[in-house]
Amino acid sequence: MVSSSRFLYFISFASASQNVLASPLSYGLEVLQRATVPDYVKAYAPLVWLHSQEVYFPSDIAAQLVHTKPEIDFSVVAGYPTPLTLDNLDALNANNGTNVYLTSVDDVTKVPVWLNGVKPDDSHKTDGAVSASVIINDHGNGNVDAFYMYFTAYNWGGRLLDQDVDYHVGDWEYNMIRFANGTPTQVWYSQHAFGEAFTYDCLEKQGSRPVAYSGNGSHAVYATSGTHDHTIPNVNLPGKGILTDYTDQGTLWDPLLSAYFHSFDANTKDFSTYDPSYPTAWLRYVGRWGDQQYSDSDPRQHKILGIDATAKFASGPTGPQDKQLNRTDVCPEAKGY
Predict the structure, then answer these.
(1) Which of 32, 118, 149, 307 reaches 20 to 30 Å from 271, CA-CA?
(2) What is the reported pLDDT for 2?
(3) What is the DSSP letter of 297?
């Protein structure tokens, strides 16, 4: 952990240097400070329990681009860069980027093996798959938000009235921890279209690291194991309901072991890497990480009583850049997450 005296010294030093020509030494110190992931971001990073019956495990972020092609309104985007990589994904923003869907090149009803992701090994690592992204927003004055983003290639939303619902390619869920001078104070757990926040002190932990429980198939993250009724949108109730997430201590995953680390600048709304080997352009991509919701005429699609919210296949999600990375409260605005 960086001591408060060293942190305050750096801030005062940087402020005093704004109107003078920086020496090589001061420039080096400034770069070093920016390029170092705060120790506390790692020390308090969540550990995630995946459900014992999970079949769609954390997935390699880059591999998603190998198995998809960009489409708008079910037509391939003309002239997109090939191969599409994490270093050029933001090029799709020029093509009505928010309307772009990274669409599976395979029929997902055949369940191609890449949808299953990588089960964490005995060391709790998704070996060979970078399946998480840590994004740090330093608000100044010792206030820091660290976002721990979890990626899976496929989502199953569960059973509703004995029907499968909410399958979609690509899935992003996350925790966010708010720090005050290196001390964790609050933790956000994303769940479907919203989530819950808790004080750090009240949470289950392994050592200093808070525990998250990932819903079977849906990957919504909860603070406790058991059943979670989310029939009412944006509300998590204990027990079993019409639409329920199930969590337990199946396979333990340590997202830090296979993660990219970046900082987010709220003024420029841009990202910087802590390691030059980490790709950054993909974080600027504003489109979707999966297929567009299949039309009602698609034989794969099914809706209960024609209600759109009960679609068997839904659209893929937006990525980390759309998760309100610069927020005042620990909870995002309810209009999205």
Answers:
(1) 118
(2) 39
(3) T
Contacts of 250 (CB under 8 A, 6+ apart): 49, 50, 51, 52, 53, 54
Within 10 angstroms of residue 88's Cβ, the number of other Cβ atoms is 17
Given the structure tokens 């619902």, which residue do they identify? 165
Q: Give me the helix-helix angle, 24-35 and 4-16, nearest 10°.
A: 130
Q: Give 227's strand partners.
A: 246
Q: What is the largest CA-CA distance in the chain?
A: 70
CA 20 to CA 76: how far, in whole Å? 52
Distance in angstroms (rounded) separating the CA atoms of residues 85 and 231: 37
pLDDT value for 334: 80
- Rounded to the nearest angstrom, the gap between the alpha carbon of residue 250 and the centroid of all alpha carbons in its chain is 21
Quickly tell me which residue has 């079993």 as its tokens.
Answer: 240
pLDDT of the residue at 95: 76
pLDDT lower than 70: segments of the chain? 1-35, 335-337
Reduced to 3 states (helix: H, G, I; strand: E, B; else coil), residue 63 is: helix
Backbone angles phi, psi at 48, to 5 degrees: -120, 125
* 216 neighbors 171 (Cβ within 8 angstroms): no
What pLDDT sits at residue 161?
A: 86
At residue 174, φ and ψ (nearest 5 deg) are -165, 160
Closest CA relative to residue 64, chosen from 100, 115, 108: 115
Structure tokens at 280: 């950054």
